[in-house]
Design a protein that fits this description.
single chain; mainly alpha
């Protein structure tokens, strides 16, 4: 057996049970957040908020794409369960801030799950999402 095969088997064993579902669920939630923030971006009357939200959803899409591709590469199984989404076509900055804070909680929770050598790339992408969230919240809360 080649060394690379042994390493692949060891890495595969480091992915805890249930992690697949958590990652796939996070990807679905992230696409929902990305779409909702795009809607908010279009509806806000504030130029500063428009730019901050636009920057956020662009970075989020890039990170989701990376996480999705790495997940496929790691043979993380996708879910066949339907995902329900409710998008809001009304903009309220306080609602956006609360939704982004809730999403940040999901990010923090998943970071604890992906802190393994086999998921380091996914973990790094999730950390970039966390940094983007923090920057968006900072910009939205400026007076």
């Amino acid at each position: 057996m080649r060394l690379s095969n042994i390493v692949e088997k060891l890495e595969a064993k480091t992915i805890e049970s249930g992690t697949d579902e958590k990652i796939v669920g996070f990807i679905l939630e992230s696409f929902n957040v990305r779409t909702q923030t795009h809607i908010y971006h279009l509806l806000t009357k504030s130029y500063a908020e428009h730019m901050a939200i636009g920057e956020f959803y662009d970075k989020l899409l890039s990170a989701i794409d990376s996480i999705s591709e790495m997940s496929i590469g790691l043979n993380i199984s996708t879910s066949t369960e339907p995902y329900n989404s409710t998008l809001v076509f009304d903009y309220n900055k306080d609602t956006l801030i609360n939704e982004i804070k809730e999403y940040r909680n999901s990010v923090t929770s998943l970071l604890e799950t992906t802190d393994t050598s086999s998921l380091m790339g996914i973990n790094d992408a999730i950390m970039s999402i966390q940094a983007s969230i923090d920057m968006l919240l900072y910009k939205l809360q400026l007076k």
